[in-house]
Amino acid sequence: MRFLKKLVPNIYLALLLVFIYLPIAILIIYSFNALPKSFLWGGFTLNNYKGLFKGSDGSGILESLVETLKVASIASLSSTAFGVVSSLGLAYLNKKLQSFAMTMTYVPNVMPDLVTGISFMLLFSFLGVQKSEFTLIMSHIALCVPFAILSISPKIKQLDKSLTEAAMDLGATRFQTLRLVIIPEIMPGILSSVLLTFTLSIDDYLISNFNVDSSIQTLPMMIYSMAKLGVNPKMNALTTLMFGAVLILMVLSNLSSFKKTKKTAKGTK
Q: pTM of the predicted model, to two decimals?
């Protein structure tokens, strides 16, 4: 009986992991498929990676990738900066105002992207702002800021206030206290925010589709338009490289957090 109690949860976990990661595994495998636009295996090849940014099938992929990375970088860094400032401000509010502000922060997180995209499209139209790269970046920052706050706020709450008070007592200015004490202490939350918002921005399709003109195409928009013509192995190769890059960043981030925790534990001993 005890064996079954242990076996059933393990089987459930294994099936869940298979369900989540099997599509990614299929994507990676077929990125090496020699047959173009086919689910039949035609042999192993690296041509999809070599010709990723060449040829008629890959035209515009490089431009879309560069544009997507540019928008995602600006949106993630800007939203994280806003998240740090907002989280610090929220920490000094009384409990009622803090609770109300956090509730308002949760609303955009559960709101469908369709509503957010249309809302910003109407806002820019009302203000007379033409759709451009600027409107795309602004809408992505607005999408990412609530997630940045939710990533950073827990670290602010865990911050030992005696550290900041000690720094101020020793003659540090507010800016020095922020730069030398607060920022290093909440750095894991900042890194989590950057990774999360960067991924959200790269992944977004709906908000981008509503808030940019036809002259600019992000990678999800291009993938969606190309998918109408069939499965493109170059897209499989590109998304595989992106998955690998994100995986490496996550591993490095976790290793950094693990090393910091280990140093803290040694210092405590």
A: 0.79
